Amino acid sequence: MKLLVLGATGGTGLQILDRAIAEGHEVTAMVRSPEKLARYGSKIKVVTGDLLNASELAEAMRGQDAVLSGFGRTPGSEGDLLTRFDRALVEAMKMSGVHRLVYVSMAFLFRSLLTTVVGNLFFRDLVRDAAEGEAFIRQSSLDWTIARPPRLTDGPGGEYRVREGALPFFGFKISRESVADFVVKESASGVHTGQVVGLAT
After folding, report:
1. Which residues, in sequence order, are CB contacts of 58 under 8 Å at separation 6+?
2. pLDDT at position 126, please?
3. How are beta strands 161-164 and 195-200 bridged, if at all?
4. How many CA atoms, within 13 angstroms, populate the side-chain half-sphere of residue 177?
5. What is this structure's pTM?
6. Dist. CA 145–CA 100, nearest whole Å
7. How many whole angstroms separate alpha carbon 37 and alpha carbon 60?
């Protein structure tokens, strides 16, 4: 498959790149700083652009089979960054005619006592931004899958659980490598198209 990876220079995005390459896909990454992906050489195509610009995104998307997003907010970034990105993402996919999207979000958006309390206490602004952004995707006509992992670790991948509409029971963490495995496999299988799923080890 021809896959466009967004957020490719982040921890999860790099794992998505590695997994997609390992699976033999034709991979393109759109980034602001292409030098950060120099180590991949000719294994991927790198496009320089603004991920908040729908027109630039659409140009990178044309001819792709699916878009995989590991885009996220970093400390100190704008309070509405995810909302702006998701709005541009949906608009760009409509412009380009690409329908398949696998998107990594966060477990704090699940409605449970633990996620609600912790999210509201410590990450209120981030949760609000993520929720508003996700709404653009869920209300669109795209063939989307949204994955909501809990705490991400840098450990090796392995077996993990997938649950529709909620986190797997006692699911408190998952490795970025495992999230990437789900994202790449789901882009091809479409098993969870139109679903929000929780991932955890």
Report:
1. 91, 92, 93, 95, 96
2. 86
3. antiparallel
4. 7
5. 0.94
6. 8
7. 17
57: DSSP letter: H
Supply 109's token pair: 């958006």
Look up residue 58 and give its DSSP letter: H
* CA proximity to 71, closest of 134, 165, 22: 134
Which residues, other chains included, contact 131 with Cβ-Cβ below 8 Å and sequence gap of 6+?
109
Tens-place pLDDT, residues 35-91: 999 999 999 999 999 999 999 999 999 999 999 999 998 655 668 999 999 999 999
What is the rounded CA–CA span in Å between residue 57 and residue 47?
10
What residue type is 101 in one-letter code? L
Helix (H, G, I), strand (E, B) or coil at 166: coil
SS3 3: strand
